[in-house]
Each structure stands twice: as structure tokens, then as C-alpha cells.
Amino acid sequence: MASPCIAWLRRDLRLSDNPALFAAAASGAPVVCLFVLDDDDAGENATGGASRWWLHHSLAALHADLKARGIGLILKKGRADSVLLALADKLGAKEVHWNRLYEPWSIARDTKIKSRLTERGIAAESHAADMLREPWQVKTKAGGPFSVFTPFWRALQAMGAPPPPLPAPAAANGSTEIESDSLDDWALTPHAPDWAAEFPDHWTPGEAGAAARLEGFLGGPANGYAKGRDFPAQPAVSRLSPHLHFGEISPRQIWHATEMAMADGTVSDTAGRSFLREVGWRDFNRHLLYHNPHTVDANFRPQFDTFPWAVDDAAFRAWTQGRTGYPFVDAGMRELWRTGIMHNRVRMVAASFLVKHLLIDWRKGEAWFRDTLVDADLANNVGGWQWTAGCGADAAPYFRIFNPITQGEKFDPTGAYTRRWVPELAALPDKYLFKPWEAPPLVLRQAGVTLDETYPAPIVDHAAARQRALDAYETVKQKQPAEISKGAA
DNA sequence: TTTTGAGTTGTTCGA
DNA sequence: GTCGAACAACTCAAA
């Protein structure tokens, strides 16, 4: 075939609004899509277990969608630079397109690859596809990056609507079958045990699944989003996050579809705005990480570098297994394990519990989430954990320690969510559902609950843990000024 | 340059 | 039960 054009797909597993694919198709040359399993490049940041399950199914869907348009998809394992160069050599490709990613390791890799391709006379072009606006486009009046969300979001909105989505490319002109790894050989899905057994009940990875999810959301639950999003038992949230992470849908598509639903009255202005604001947080977290790349694993606020984190493997294990004895926290952790996601409200409570009640380093929680969430996303995950721990940009104040009992009572008032994921407590009356240790023996017996046998007793006492956390945070509070004066003296 | 207003998501205590 | 205040300062962003 004639010299083809390579579209290197990474986390943009979609045909529509895909600038790299669109540009490759527009070149007039035959288009070949390439996906490289990048474990070798990503190192510490390699795709986590639950995300691999998603990736498998997303690639399968993408392969079928491309095939229907006569576009081939090549799967390769290895380092992206050598795979790309070898393929370009083999095919005689003169042009490579991809959509930008913003994790520090990804930027480093892509920059290197771009120069290696260019050296060889191959045109390499990167495109904007993963954000509403590029990280360097949203600027303060002084020209710098933001570190507070609200002014960031105001500035982004003031720039007007992001570019409208591109259509999917037309059918390609005869790309041939080219040797590819077999997706099944990558063994991205778990066996023995198959902890993802229930995932298909909850998810349909792929561009079509993403579009259906958005349409279903905007056509119904979106209108109750502003209030309903805090109640994990309500189907009030979009659940688009894993689709967004893998780029099966773009934030621009979401923006424009939401604006359209607001314009035709399907979705109220309040509801639509509050939903887009959350999409804005995704851009903000990328913006933060792009401008502060070291915060992947370093505290955004350096005075936390001396924070007295506890080492408590038993407590950490109990947290991961949903056996802390706090039913609302445990419900969230078990929802995570069974479905690959946790409702946002419960994420905050469960994360706060790890960091503040157990005093365990946010990085341990971040790593666990990264491995178990189907929507694991470095920027969002790090941003969220640092916010919770209080060491982040624009972080939660140190004295905000979520009460795992009252949060349950407030946001799961009927107990439907907690009973679903902690069924051994299902027969407990509402009054004791979130604090079974306070239930009279008779009530426990009637509900079939024996503490420390059928369900754990709380691993820490709330009031004592809260005080311990406040004391620990006290140690980093005044640090900064003291250090400065010490340094000056 | 200095000043001013503001900042995702909460809890507890005491009147 | 309900309500307001305290929790603590700090830093950002813009005027």
C-alpha cells in the first residue's frame, strides 16, 4: 500500500472527536492505528488491575469499530519508542499523529519520541483531545497557572465554549491486515480468582457504551444532579469517569451535549452547570499536575513532609477489605472491590478515614485506589487524595474530619446503599445501621449480628481517632513560619 | 505595590 | 431539635 499514516492511540479509544485519528484520515494516506501496552514506559504508573480489565474490553470495542470502517488496529507490547520506530520503518510511514497526555512520565516519553521520529524524517504531530482547554491555555491575569479551583473555573468559562467535537473519520482507503499481538494474549483480565466477575453487570466499556451512558444521564438523572449527586443510593451521577479516563468520550463532547440539553430544557441550568463544574475538576487536576509534576508523589504543601504518618499494616488491610467496623466506610470499600468504582461522596469519607482516623499516608490510599478503580486516573487520584489529606492545592482544612457515622446517616438516610454492600447488617434498624456497636444486645441478636464475628467491631474509636488526627495536624500547622525564621536566623 | 475578598464537599459545642 | 460560632491561619487572584 501507499505510505500510510499512523495514528498512535493511547487514552483516546474513540473514533469521534479524535483529532489525531481525524488528522491521519485527512492526510489522504491509508490509516493504521497503533496501541502500545506501555507497562515498560509507565513503570510505577503502569495501568492498575481494574483498569486493565477495562482496557481489554475497550480495545476489543475499538477494534470492532475501526474494522467496520476498514481501519486496522495493531496491538504491540513494549517500549513505545522502539515499537513506533520499527512500525514506521516497516510500513514506510512518513507521518504519525497522537493526542496529548499530561502525566509527567507520559510527557517525558512523548517528547523523546517526537524528536526521534523527527530525526528520521517522520512528521510527528500531537493534538489536543483530552481536556476542555490545554493546561497552559488557562492562565491567571498575571500569566501563571492557577492553584485554586474557583478562579480557574471562572477563567476557563470566560474563554467560552471549548472547540466543538469533530466527526468520526470517514472509512479509510484500504489499510491492510498487519501483524498484531492478540488481545487475549495480553491477559489483561483476571483469572483465578476472577475478581472482575461482576464488572460486566455494571459497565459497558467502549465508545458506544460511553455515548449511551451520557445520553441516558442527560435524558434523566442529570436534572437531579446538583442535589442527588451526594446520595450514593440514588442513580443521580453520570458514571462517565472510566469512559473519560480511557478517552471513549471527550470532555468537549460532554460539554457540548450538556449545553444542548440545557438549551432545549431537558436539563436545568443549575443541574447542567453543576455537572460541568465536576468535569472542570478533571481539567483542574490535570492543570495542577502539569504545572507541579513532582506532586505525583510529593506533598503539594511541603510542610507536610514531616507529617507523623502511622505505619499500621493491619489497619490498612482492614480498610482495603472493607472491615473497619464503620459500615459506611466498609460499604464504599466493598463497592470498590466488587464494581471497580466508589461513589464520590463515599470516596471522600473512606479516604478521610484512612488519612485522618488511621493516620495512614495518603500515598498508600492513592496506590490502592489506582489499582482497584476502573476510573483510576493519576491526576484526579493524586488531586483527590492530597485534597483529602490537607496537603494539596486548595485542600480541605485540617479540621475537616468526616464523621463516618453521621455522613452515613445524612447521605444514606434509608440505608439502602450501606445494606446493599454490607448485607450482614441488613436487618439492623436504621438507628444502629451506621454504629452497630451502640445497638443493644437484643437488637443485635434479632438482626443476626455478632460483633467481631459476623461483622467487625470498630478498629478505632471515632472520638479518640479524631483527637489524634487533630494533634498530628497540629505538628505541621505552624511549621512553615518557624522554619522560615529559623532559616533567617 | 498593597490591599482585599475569598476559598468543593464538615464537625462539634453550647446556647 | 435547631442554630450560630469556632475551628486557624494562609495564600491565592485580582483590583
What does this structure look like?
The protein is built from 23 helices and 5 strands. With 489 residues, it is mainly alpha-helical. It has 3 domains: 5-129, Rossmann fold (3-Layer(aba) Sandwich), CATH 3.40.50.620; 131-162 and 208-291, Serine Threonine Protein Phosphatase 5, Tetratricopeptide repeat (Alpha Horseshoe); 302-476, Orthogonal Bundle (DNA Cyclobutane Dipyrimidine Photolyase, subunit A, domain 3), CATH 1.10.579.10. The chain has a 5-stranded parallel beta sheet with strand order 3-2-1-4-5, sandwiched between helices. The longest helix has 23 residues, at 269-291. The protein is globular. The structure holds a DNA duplex (15 and 15 nucleotides).
Secondary structure layout plus pairing:
Layout: E1 5-9, H1 19-26, E2 31-37, H2 39-42, H3 49-68, E3 72-77, H4 80-91, E4 95-99, H5 104-119, E5 123-127, H6 149-158, H7 199-202, H8 207-218, H9 225-228, H10 241-245, H11 251-263, H12 269-291, H13 313-321, H14 327-339, H15 344-357, H16 362-372, H17 378-389, H18 404-411, H19 416-421, H20 430-433, H21 441-446, H22 462-477, H23 479-488
Parallel strand pairs: 1-2, 1-4, 2-3, 4-5
Helix pairs in contact: 11-12, 12-17, 14-15, 15-17, 16-17
The structure holds a DNA duplex (15 and 15 nucleotides).
CATH-defined superfamily of the largest domain? DNA Cyclobutane Dipyrimidine Photolyase, subunit A, domain 3
| Domain count | 3
- Average residue-wise pLDDT: 93
CATH topology-level fold name of the largest domain: DNA Cyclobutane Dipyrimidine Photolyase, subunit A, domain 3
Looking at the overall shape, the CATH architecture of the largest domain is Orthogonal Bundle
Q: Which residues form runs of ≥5 with pLDDT under 50?
A: 479-489
Lateral strand order in the biggest sheet: 3-2-1-4-5
CATH class of the largest domain: Mainly Alpha
**What share of residues is helical?**
40-55%
Q: What fraction of the residues are assigned to beta strands by DSSP?
A: 5-15%
| Rg, Å, rounded | 24 Å
Query: How many helices does DSSP assign?
Result: 23
SSE string, helices as H and strands as E: EHEHHEHEHEHHHHHHHHHHHHHHHHHH
